[in-house]
Amino acid sequence: MGRYVIRRLLQMIPVFIGTTFIIFAMVYALGDPIAAMFGDRAPDPATLARIRAELNLDKPMVEQYVLYMGNIFSGDFGQAFNGQQVTELMGEAFPVTMRLTLVAITIEIVLGIGLGLVSGLRRGKLVDTITLIGTLVVISIPVFVIGYLAQYFLAVEWDIIDPAVSSDATFEELIVPGFVLAGLSLAYITRLTRASVAENLRADYLRTAKAKGLPRSRVIGVHLLRNSLIPVVTFIGTDVGALMGGAIVTERIFNIHGVGYQLWNGVLRGNSPTVVGFVTILVLVFLLANLLVDLLYAVLDPRIRYA
Amino acid sequence: MRGAKSAKWVALAAVVAMAATACGGGDDDKDSKGEGSGGGIVRASWTDPQNPLEPSNTNEVQGGKVLDMIFRGLMEYDPKTGEAKQAMAESIETKDQQTFTFKLKKGWKFSDGTPVTAKSYVDAWNYGAHIDNKQLNSYFFSDIEGYDDVHPAEEGAKAKAETMSGLKVVDEHTFTVKLKEKFSTWPQRLGYKAYSPLPEAFFKDHDGWLKKPVGNGPYKVDSYKKGTGMKLSVNESYAGAEKPKNKGVELKVYTDFNTAYNEVMSGDLDVLDDVPAGQLANVEQDMQGRYINQPAGIIQAITFPLYDKGWSSKKAVKVRQGISMAINREEITKTIFQNTRTPATDFTSPVLGAAGGYSKDICGEFCTYNPEKAKKLIQEGGGIPGGQMVLSSNIDTGSHKDWMDAVCNSINKVLDDKDACRVNPVGTFADFRDQITKDQMKGPFRSGWQMDYPLIDNFLTPIYKTGGSSNDGSYSNKEFDKLIDKANAEADTTKAIKLYQDAEKILFQDMPGIALWYQNGSGAYSDKVDNVALDAFSVPVFKDITVK
């Protein structure tokens, strides 16, 4: 187990270097951020050169990357153009997005697995049909449409919530954005669980469990659900990273100043320290979430062992 | 059983984690309720300023909005007429249009209690001009004698002096400015916020000042959280004539102005100073009279790359004029912009007023849609260089893709050739500006201009004078330059404006660019506030807003 974890952690190094380099190159290709700082006025060459030199932008891209990585390992993630440290931006943005992700994941797990289980157990019945149609609708409508509709009706028309989340971004305020963010994955989880449950219902071990005379709750809760959850857990694991990075749309709509907002700003202003810094952290989150999923398999199915 | 046990632990850990974070979030709850409506505070939309908030480093509207509230310079611009009036200047005297003596009004203080003196101005201007401080607006001091010593033009050169020789403190409330050349209207540009005075605290504790800027304006900064917002209250020591009619302003950063729009509708936000394009069709009905749509000092134009041989040949003038006549400005401003743009009739802006140099007929027939004549002119000029014109703009803001498509359609229809004009959308403003400053444009490109101060020279000199700071198309005409210089030296304003307009007439003969339309400022406000108006820069006049 320990060796497995170490091997996985070591594998992260090339992935980490690869992703950051690609992102760095992509931001670099977005054009000269310093020219844009001067607005519609042509930059004054003397000032331009000074700012460039200060931000290492006058050096070749590969050298910039090496300098940047060197700084990262000493804990310096560089500065955003408004003079703020990127680490400071992270300190503000990540807790907010993590809270939003937590809300979304909770909604996904509770509602998605619940609905999937119910419809899987009652395949072909009314509940099942409604769930199938409902999830299809959610899957086919783009997130921003759902977001704006939710905002318009809940906030403007019915005045149940505020249209924008305040700067504190409390759990209470994040419920509606959480639903919007979770929507798509929720539908997938429901369908995954449903398919998995329906398949395992016919399995031998389940028949045995029933035949042993175990109570129904135990048959479903331990025997059926535990075995049906492996594909679902895989999905949720990868989803953690996807949700954190993909919150850009939801965060924009509900004015949440999280990771999505900072990334958006960074890309728009061609600010590589912000973009690369945030993506680096996201990559780490993604990799760790996947590791956690693999370890969870062992919990769900004792036959899977990592020696 | 083993598995079940570990599953329990995982669940338990999740519950504990959630409870812990929930507590953290819960504490802030009271705070968010407290900042609601009432209390005489105006809540307004904002986006994060792009650069640190320093007067000589702020060149965009969002940072400018704050500087406007916390600073008063020597001059200020009338919110209604845009006219330059003396604010902190008691008197401005000059005998030769080159050396100016500024006397300051007494009794002015910064919000930290220190007095505003002649030194506050001279120090601030020297700071803004000095190359070591890398200020984006240092250009604004370039007319002052000695600028080249503190700000050499060549890359890598070091400053030869610490201060500009043209600036002299006479006594506590008097200082003189000597310019490199005669420039009669120069003092009128001093309402621009780059010319604000700075307190000693700025130089002593620069980082601290940036976190919480201190100025001498009608408001003072209470708290500033980057990326979230800023709270301002009335500056009790403000010595200007008109005190704010509310108790303060809260600027809230929005990621998406559609959200801000919804916030105005639900009453959670009071003032929105940029109605998103998608809402323009229904804004009048939604806001029931609480919608503002008025001209601002912004003009959108197309610039031709005159460094490209095809576009700069002698015959190409006719092509450029023809293209201008092939654009149906009326229809595009109506259908795409819902009348929030006004078809352009000159290269300035209606906010200047006729007295300030704005003209309704200076462009004449060249700005009027005339398909037959347009086609004829383009053909006489030898057709579009290279057979196809590529129109470029960044498309990350401002519905630029929409109008570019419409302009190209209009040109293609006139020429009866569906490939005559093609749109080249550039992803980001950074990339767009990069290509422009490197003279890489193959075809015409958008050139928006937002005025720095409401004077006609600001619409002409930087953009069309040889070597001008925004002369992106490399246009050069000696006659034009000569008229501008003459206008600058002219002491009589009416005569000066006449000269500027004579120079402008040359532009329509040469057509280095096409004037498209004037951009309006648009705003919406909630039913909790009154007396909301936009000034010539399309920034709300915060001090006049009253809260019900």
From TrEMBL, chain A:
Subcellular location: Cell membrane
SUPFAM superfamilies, per the entry: MetI-like (SSF161098)
Every ABC transmembrane type-1 domain range: 94-297
Keywords linked to the UniProt accession: Cell membrane, Membrane, Transmembrane, Transmembrane helix, Transport
Keyword Coiled coil assigned: no
Superkingdom of source: Bacteria
Bilayer topology annotation: Multi-pass membrane protein
InterPro entries given in the database record: BPD_transp_1_N, MetI-like, MetI-like_sf
Membrane-crossing segments per the record: 12-31, 96-118, 130-154, 174-192, 228-254, 274-300
Keyword Heme in annotation: no
Family: Belongs to the binding-protein-dependent transport system permease family.
Name this protein carries in UniProt: ABC transporter permease
Organism: Streptomyces pactum
Organismal lineage: Bacteria, Bacillati, Actinomycetota, Actinomycetes, Kitasatosporales
Automatic annotation (TrEMBL), chain B:
Recorded coiled-coil stretches: none
Record region (Disordered): 23-59
Residue ranges annotated for the Solute-binding protein family domain, each copy included: 85-470
Signal peptide location: 1-22
Listed InterPro entries: Peptide/Ni-bd, SBP_5, SBP_5_dom
Bias-annotated ranges (Polar residues): 47-59
Cross-referenced Gene3D superfamilies: Dipeptide-binding Protein, Domain 1, Dipeptide-binding Protein, Domain 3, Periplasmic binding protein-like II
SUPFAM superfamilies: Periplasmic binding protein-like II
Keywords: Signal
Domain of life, source organism: Bacteria
Pfam families with a match to the protein in the record: SBP_bac_5
Family annotation (PANTHER family): ABC TRANSPORTER SUBSTRATE-BINDING PROTEIN, PERIPLASMIC BINDING COMPONENT OF ABC TRANSPORTER
Record's protein name: ABC transporter substrate-binding protein
Organism: Streptomyces pactum
